[in-house]
Amino acid sequence: MATRVIPPRILRNLRYNTATKPLNSVHPSSLSPTLSPPIFLDQKPPSSTVLLRPSSDPSGLNFHDVEKLFSYVPTSTLLRSTAMLHATGIEPMVDLGMWVMRSKLMEMEGIKDVILAGIRGTFYNHFCAGEDAITAGQSIGLLKDAGLRGMLVYGVEDAHDNHGCDKNLKGFLHTVDVSKSLPPSSVSFVIVKITAICPMKLLERMSDLLRWQQKDPSFILPWKQDSFPIFSESTPLYHTRKRPEPLTMEEESDLKLANQRLFELCQKCVEANIPLLVDAEHTEVQPAIDYFTYSSAIMHNKGENPIVFGTIQTYLKDAMERLKLATKAADKMNIPMGFKLVRGAYMSMERKVASSLGYASPIHKTIHDTHKCFNDCSSFMLEKIANGPGGVVLATHNVESGKLAAAKAHELGIGKVNHKLEFAQLYGMSEALSFGLSNAGFQVSKYMPFGPVETVMPYLLRRAEENRGMLAASGFDRQLMREELGRRMKRIVAMF
């Protein structure tokens, strides 16, 4: 019997359009805005049909066929991506860029404009989805054509007063509106940073009070609502050295406002039928963030599909214990809980703070231990969602972790296109893993920050500083991209 040849676009459309719909079955109607020219993927190169071959990996994950892997990435984007990944893998160049962005040069008119233009045309355009939600929505539409989804991230970080928090809330609410107007299921999550809608000082105070209550259960917090466990027995509590004073009346008023902001955003996501994912931060304020996340999940997560997702950073030694405690409490309360699993993004800060206070770092001692923790937490969550409610987002750039999770999902019989399971990578990074997982039939999202260059600057600086090792180790992506560029060049030469 002859093997049937099927164009990749047809295969991709069949897979994507039969996806299990997330959350409720009713989706908002499409009200796609008028969009400006694309940012990430411009025109798809001329595609050739591919011969379907069985994969040796039962999960279907295949990185050998580079033509199929990058079939939706135009040559111009491959060239730019290869150049950007190479440049950001050179540590002295990253150090120079960070120095420039933090220097007094950024205070000098004229020079500042030149620097921002340079950043916009390189680092920003590669790692960010656009300067506003509408442009980011366009980038998501292009990802959808390539079989991927988007996590929209309004690129603000910390707020220090209620005025800033209110302004940031408007940005998050607008993000939900834009997401609702895009094709159904093209936006997998809207991301929120609690540090952007609750003053940082209040988060620090709340975290101190929560830690002290963990030390002394008789310590009463009158403002505290129902929550899941925030700490485990092994969670370090060194940030809080003495009994903190109760919240002042002004702080309680600020807390009430923060609760109202998060409630409004959660309600907006419920109405739009789009999950809200709460990002994690450093351990100084993470207890308060977990408190906000869990109390909101109790109020808004119903049925089998969570609307509010939390984040567990698996480079922390207590990650697995806290994950198990939170999921056990959620099960007991019949609350479906979703988690994003990441390795972590504050390693340098955590080690410095712990050392300054005379304590061991809360981060795993070796990268092997971090990998093991991420993989163990992934396996745990996959088993939970295979047998009950909830959801998991596996945010990883590690190819081996992707392979292990895909194989585990296959072993458990979790449907590949399943709204309970989502893989995720940063926009502009790990394209091979993203497309490989997508080609294997799994739902994959790109974490897509957007906003004016100056607004997103703290995000870019943090990514550059914390991901320098990962960027330097991006050789896997660069190698596969070079192979595909070489294949395309040979095809062009053969035409003449």
From TrEMBL:
Report the catalytic activity.
L-proline + a quinone = (S)-1-pyrroline-5-carboxylate + a quinol + H(+)
Q: Which GO terms describe its molecular function?
A: FAD binding; proline dehydrogenase activity
Sorted alphabetically, the keyword list is: FAD, Flavoprotein, Oxidoreductase, Proline metabolism
Taxonomy, superkingdom: Eukaryota
In this protein, which residues make up the domain named Proline dehydrogenase?
186-470
> What Gene3D superfamilies has UniProt attached to this entry?
3.20.20.220
So what EC number does this one have? 1.5.5.2
| Coiled-coil residues | none
| GO biological process: one example | L-proline catabolic process to L-glutamate
Name the job this protein performs. Converts proline to delta-1-pyrroline-5-carboxylate.
Task: Report the PANTHER family cross-referenced here.
Answer: PROLINE DEHYDROGENASE (PTHR13914:SF33), PROLINE OXIDASE (PTHR13914)
**What is this protein's record name?**
Proline dehydrogenase
